[in-house]
Amino acid sequence: MPRTRVYEAVTERLEILDVEGRVDQALMPALDAEALRGLYRDMVLMRNFDDKALKLQRQGRMGTWPPIKGQEAVQAGVARAMGEHDWLIPAFREHGVMALRGVPLHLIYAYWAGDERGSCYPEGVRCFPVAVPVGSQWQHGAGVGLSLKLSGEDAVAVTFGGDGSTSEGDFHEALNCAAVFGVKAVFVIQNNQWAISVPLHQQTATATLAQKAHAYGMPGIQVDGNDVLAVYVATREAIQRARRGDGPTLIEAVTYRLGDHTTADDASRYRPEGEVEAWEGRDPIQRLRRHLEGAGLWDESQEAVLQEEAHAWVESQVKAFEEMAPQEPEAIFSSMYAELPPHLVEQMNELLAEVRS
Ligand SMILES: Cc1ncc(C[n+]2csc(CCOP(=O)(O)OP(=O)(O)O)c2C)c(N)n1
Ligand SMILES: [Mg+2]
Q1: How many structural domains is the chain composed of?
Q2: Do residues 212 and 343 both lie within one domain?
Q3: Which of 80, 257, 282, 287 is catalytic?
Q4: Fewest CB atoms less than 10 Å from the CB: which of 48, 113, 183, 268?
Q5: Radius of gyration of the chain from Cα atoms?
Q6: Are strands 157-162 and 198-199 parallel, antiparallel or unpaired?
Q7: What is d(CA 64, CA 66) in angstroms, rounded to the nearest whole number?
């Protein structure tokens, strides 16, 4: 259905690395060869563990899994721009950034296999649990950002959400509140073009999601989300701004979900022909690889070593996940309420009677 009107973007857009792997030298961040190879490695590890999770699901060894294929640059760029003490507040498609911020991969797998212990991170890992209710995490992020401002702690809250989540009231309330109170926060939209089967143009009548920031009174920037360098630069600047006490920033990372919404979805039923192929040509991993190869920083033998390392790491994490002792059946009731309401006590007892009979 044609839209009646599109309000033009008044948004800054940042791109540094193009699809051929060429960089805009004027915008290039001061990252040495080791750091650039590190970003590449981060993304390759993500692609590997994501692919493994899909296979585990197909083999009945994993629950529903939301793939991150195609969105690795957003997650690596943000993770590497964050400081040691910054907080991560994810939605549900942030396994990559979570793993880079210290959440053990075997726990990420456990969570998506329905194990409550998958949300119990090691002490010191500054990451909130996965938030599946769409948009709910924006408010958590604004709240963490406010508490960091009030406590004076040298840390920033980095919150993620999808394009679809920007239609929830929570998004408006969180960003409005964050700007009014000048909280120490950065909000990152992974605009992967789809919210299950709902395309972006049915989600918003604005030309960009970043421009919504202006209505709240905070800077908003759109970045090429398949360009890990642009994501890194924009996030680093936004984090520095928040750290200085100059308030929050909204970053829209334009990317694409190459896979299905989850393993319970079949995206070929609603996506137009050729769209996936077009985005495959903008693959964030290949793009950085072309750059590294062009600069003489990467070759086939290094690639083989990295793929081997990724494989070994993922397999060790699968082993750790599958070796976890079975969780107690009452665990599914135990983490929501301090005191279980009577109707849930009844359900729990019914379940326990069933499994123990
Ligand atoms: C409040 C709420 N409504 C609906 C759902 C079902 N649901 C799960 S993911 C999703 C789409 C989210 O799209 P987006 O925010 O773009 O994130 P993406 O899945 O593309 O990463 C919906 C509608 C939900 N989990 N929570
Ligand atoms: Mg989306």
Answers
A1: 2
A2: no
A3: 257
A4: 268
A5: 21
A6: unpaired
A7: 7
Instruction: Give the domain extent around 333.
Output: 328-357
> What number of residues does the chain have?
357
Q: Which of 137, 188, 193, 196 to mutate to test the pocket of ligand 1 (most atoms within 8 A of CB)?
A: 196
Same domain? 322 vs 332:
no
Q: Does 7 map to a domain?
A: no
**Does 108 lie in the same domain as 91?**
yes
Co-location of 52 and 100 in the same domain: yes
Name the strand (E) or helix (H) holding 250. strand 249-254
List ligand 1's pocket residues with C-beta within 6 A: 93, 132-134, 162-165, 190, 192, 194-196, 257, 261
Q: Are residues 166 and 176 in the same domain?
A: yes
Query: Which is catalytic among the residues 47, 236, 241, 261?
Result: 261
CA distances from 243 to 153, 154, 155 (A): 9, 7, 7
| Two tokens, residue 138 | 């924006």
Shared domain check, 335 and 191: no
In this structure, are 209 and 293 located in the same domain?
A: yes
* Residue in 254, 253, 263, 269 with CA at minimum distance from that of residue 197: 269
pLDDT one digit per residue (tens) for the chain, 357 residues = 444 455 555 678 999 999 999 999 999 999 999 999 999 999 999 999 999 999 999 999 999 999 999 999 999 999 999 999 999 999 999 999 999 999 999 999 999 999 999 999 999 999 999 999 999 999 999 999 999 999 999 999 999 999 999 999 999 999 999 999 999 999 999 999 999 999 999 999 999 999 999 999 999 999 999 999 999 999 999 999 999 999 999 999 999 999 999 999 999 999 999 999 999 999 999 999 999 999 999 999 999 999 999 999 999 999 999 999 999 998 989 888 999 999 999 999 999 999 988
Residue 6 lies in a domain: no
Residue 309 lies in a domain: yes
